[in-house]
Amino acid sequence: MRRRSFDLRRPARRRWFDGQWGCVAVGGLTVLMLFLFLGRESKPRSPSLISQIMMQEPYRSSLVEALNITDEILSPLSTTRQLVDQISLAKAFVIIAKDNNNLQLAADLSFQIHHSQSLLSSSATLKTSPSPEESQLAIRNMASLLYQAQQVNNYDTATTIAKLKSKIQSLEEKSKSETEKSTKFGQIAAEELPKSLYCLAVRLTTEWFRSPNLRRKLSDSRRMAITEKFTDNQLYHFCVFSDNILAVSAVINSTTINSRQPDLIVFHLVTDEVNFLPMRAWFLMNDFRGAAVEVQKVEDFTWLNSSYVPVLKQLQDSQTQNFYFSGTGDSRTPVKFRNPKYLSLLNHLRFYIPEVFPELQKMVFLDDDVVVQKDLAELFTINLNGNVMGAVETCMETFHRFHKYLNYSHPLIRAHFDPDACGWAFGMNLIDLREWRRKNVTGIYHYWQERNSDHTLWKLGSLPPGLLAFYGLVETLDPSWHVLGLGYTNVDPKAIREGAVLHYNGNMKPWLKIGMEKYKGLWERYVDYSHSLLQQCYIH
Ligand SMILES: *[C@@H]1O[C@H](CO)[C@@H](O)[C@H](O)[C@H]1NC(C)=O
Ligand SMILES: *[C@@H]1O[C@H](CO)[C@@H](O)[C@H](O)[C@H]1NC(C)=O
Ligand SMILES: *[C@@H]1O[C@H](CO)[C@@H](O)[C@H](O)[C@H]1NC(C)=O
Ligand SMILES: *[C@@H]1O[C@H](CO)[C@@H](O)[C@H](O)[C@H]1NC(C)=O
Ligand SMILES: *[C@@H]1O[C@H](CO)[C@@H](O)[C@H](O)[C@H]1NC(C)=O
């Protein structure tokens, strides 16, 4: 048994976040923005009640997901391809809707098809890509509509499924040839996976509606026993907030395979509306050595609204919107930090863990880009010494110190925070939910977020205020618990060998073609590539 060095704690030195995370987090706020912004902007364009209801959802999620997000959104080819793919799927739904005499839906779809097509044709004429805002709006609107179409239609009938399937098939052939084409043009293959994930989600959704057995699993007696586990504080609870089914599956698989008592493990997943049914279907279909898996969606958390959450409130402010979208906030800010797709509300959710799980006392938070190599039960025995969170420090390099992230010209920052405070990492954190509630960390977080309504404490991101909130409340963990950097740098092989949790923070995720070859294997061994659904979606 490894000994934890509790006396590592240096009260005078404060911890700060890992730089990678800082970068990633900076986008979080922006994406929330976009969601609200879209919600508001798109209303007048929608032709019918159905669309209007959908447009009002404050944080509609994207089907096409954020992997190498910067490129994903910046590359004209990629959004164009997404639009093209959506259009062909939508056309299939138009036929189905008409068959079912659902003329309103058919009209809505046709309207959106027309809109996407005109976006494409105008950009073709002008020889420029559609603006990211515009195409993202179109993609999101279409995605919602497609999702709605799946629900509204009589999906249980064999004909619908057959039609859907043939359409998906042609979509896939298309996407395959697109992929070949794009490889020819030297396009980075990183974009391949978002489409495969989209395919997987569609297939799992179809599977869900087609298979009564799958749905029945949710209500059978064995399930009742599992549900009781969700709130049992004797068990090992983990939470993952993600919209990437494949990544989450690898996290759970690796955790349970390396556990001596997998039946004591409970995973709590929170995803978005679009990935909710697919994710639920996946974790009902596959058993992970008896571990219990709960799936929720963030849209169901009605308390997560703008009257409670300052970030959401601030996002409704038009000045804030300009700040994020005009790009005039600070011309030195890299485009990446202004990228609205960087993160979603799901990434923001980490600051509300005790509210998401009101009945739990202790929990391990995992990012979806990690892989587990050891039994994590021992982690739960670590004494946090009254602190709220356990994390590994990252300030071996000066880069990860406090002054890099905050405006030390501001008296409030100068007065409260040591500029040389050490950073620490999110991604594998032991959390004492009782201490969190007692110390009102969410309240502190809200306090700092509200102070920053003019963006003078820090420029961008939802993370900095969270960091301020945890200031002085973090217990240092032995670095072997959480080995960072597998997504962007060379990591000490010994650290990798001995690490309990490996973190692919950075752009080179193991599920992407651009992932670092030498680190991919560590992740891939927990993915069942022979699974028929994965094969059908060209995930390999
Ligand atoms: C991904 O992001 C990295 C860092 O921004 C960049 O170097 C790379 O070219 C991007 N593209 C892809 C899809 O890898
Ligand atoms: C917003 O959240 C607060 C508490 O978090 C809750 O009391 C209120 O009912 C919510 N409002 C809506 C419209 O759901
Ligand atoms: C937590 O902090 C908020 C904001 O600072 C405050 O309004 C609230 O009353 C506090 N709650 C508790 C339980 O102390
Ligand atoms: C830093 O804070 C000072 C004092 O509030 C403010 O005048 C300045 O504009 C801030 N700097 C930035 C870059 O926001
Ligand atoms: C989990 O990992 C094991 C081996 O590492 C693999 O055989 C299995 O197929 C994986 N399960 C799933 C559902 O991915």
Automatic annotation (TrEMBL):
The chain crosses the membrane at residues 21-39. Pathway: Glycan metabolism; pectin biosynthesis. CDD domains: GT8_like_1. GO terms for molecular function: polygalacturonate 4-alpha-galacturonosyltransferase activity. Its main location: Golgi. It holds the Pfam family Glyco_transf_8. The keyword NAD does not apply. This is Hexosyltransferase. Belongs to the glycosyltransferase 8 family. It is a single-pass type II membrane protein.
